[in-house]
């Protein structure tokens, strides 16, 4: 596969190419993908500015029809798209297909939102004046997306951007360019103005940096690490660019003594190791009441050891490879760090063997950990979870809230009182009761607190807060009626 950039309505080669390697089988080169030049970026920004005005003028039904067509095709091709996601990112085939289908649902949802972009009428405090409030597009939106959800995360940014009348410059992660090209091919076939949607592939330190520094960008939506997010904010603020950023996490799952123990174990395994732990919503801190601690840990380790690690497209695989050699090294470094801090490694934490040469790792469980250990403070983005023993619900809640992050959090309990208290007092953007910390719906807001998020929420009707700007109009209605 040869992947090109899509700039000003045309597919183009770049100034260089990168190889896309299958993390399940490093002998499999998926293709070579173009890297954009600064001139490519400059042209895409100018084209986007021209196209945005034309797109807005086409009206809400045109936008609805385009987004509906994109989403419908994505859902119909979920098997094909999902296989590519699994092949280049490493998540098991079922997860890849699920991601592709859900990404299509984002487009069909926001197709409907395009028709519901309604304003408000208000009475003025002054006589003879009417007031109307409406939402208009923010303009040219830069989207910088991560590798762990190479189609879903871009979809929940691109879909509302287009629905509300904006133009898009998309810079995907260089680790997953094939998914980006496939999604762009679907979008490019639609009835949209030339230059409205641009795919600009390249390294974050070059093309990404030039994009966020550009005064031609009106808004930036970013998902990635905290250090990169802070750097983007520093680069964008001189231009007063609007920002929306979803960054790191250290999500807690409280497991209380009154819970359904088997359900708690199942949800903890799901949340900690789904997607090979490479999720911003993964449960990396399991905070367990001392009365059930030993029984929970025993069942957790047994369930973790049963997980099948292997190539992403193997039907038996439950845990695919991590995304790259660098990520695997980082994961193994955290295993060594945890042990040096005094944590007890109960299972996993080593490279796993498979029929192919890939970046396979056995999921790991640490016990006897403290919340002040680095493995419980830093986002690892790995199939690693830590158990922290607590003596009460109150202590567990304090530990859960003792973090710079606040994206998702969960509790396993049969107590309605505890569940209600947790929902009210857990400092996180998304709170789950008797559910995994991972897994959110596309029609409701998503985002966190603290270092996890900055700016307006993503998804659902709350997306309008970022992708539109509000205009208040005053109309004087005095004058003769005859």
Give the overall shape, derived from the CA principal axes: globular
- Helicity range of the residues? 25-40%
What is the typical, i.e. mean, pLDDT? 96
Spatial arrangement of strands, main beta sheet: 15-16-17-14-13-19-20
List the helices and strands and how they pair.
Elements: E1 2-3, E2 5-7, E3 10-12, E4 16-22, E5 25-35, H1 38-58, H2 60-76, H3 78-89, H4 93-115, E6 120-123, E7 129-137, E8 140-144, H5 152-163, E9 167-171, H6 177-188, E10 197-199, H7 204-213, E11 219-223, H8 226-236, E12 242-246, E13 251-255, H9 261-273, E14 283-289, H10 293-306, H11 325-340, E15 344-347, E16 364-367, E17 384-390, H12 393-401, E18 405-406, E19 408-412, H13 416-425, E20 430-433, E21 449-450, E22 453-454, H14 464-467, E23 468-476
Parallel strand pairs: 1-5, 8-9, 8-11, 9-10, 11-12, 13-14, 13-19, 14-17, 16-17, 19-20
Antiparallel strand pairs: 2-3, 4-5, 6-7, 7-23, 12-22, 15-16, 18-21
Protein model, in words:
The chain is an alpha/beta fold and 482 residues long. The chain has 2 domains: 2-247 and 452-473, Aldehyde Dehydrogenase, Chain A, domain 1; 251-433, Aldehyde Dehydrogenase, Chain A, domain 2 (3-Layer(aba) Sandwich). 38% of the residues lie in helices and 23% in strands. The protein contains 14 helices and 23 strands. The chain has helices at residues 38-58, 60-76, 78-89, 93-115, 152-163, 177-188, 204-213, 226-236, 261-273, 293-306, 325-340, 393-401, 416-425, 464-467, and strands at 2-3, 5-7, 10-12, 16-22, 25-35, 120-123, 129-137, 140-144, 167-171, 197-199, 219-223, 242-246, 251-255, 283-289, 344-347, 364-367, 384-390, 405-406, 408-412, 430-433, 449-450, 453-454, 468-476. The strands form 6 sheets. A 7-stranded mixed sheet has the order 15-16-17-14-13-19-20, sandwiched between helices. It has a 6-stranded mixed sheet with strand order 10-9-8-11-12-22, sandwiched between helices. A 3-stranded mixed sheet has the order 1-5-4. A hairpin with a 2-residue loop joins β4 and β5 (25-35). α2 packs antiparallel against α4 (93-115), α3 crosses α4 and α4 (93-115) packs parallel to α5 (152-163). The longest helix has 23 residues, at 93-115. It is globular and about 85 Å long. The model has no long low-confidence stretch (mean pLDDT 96).
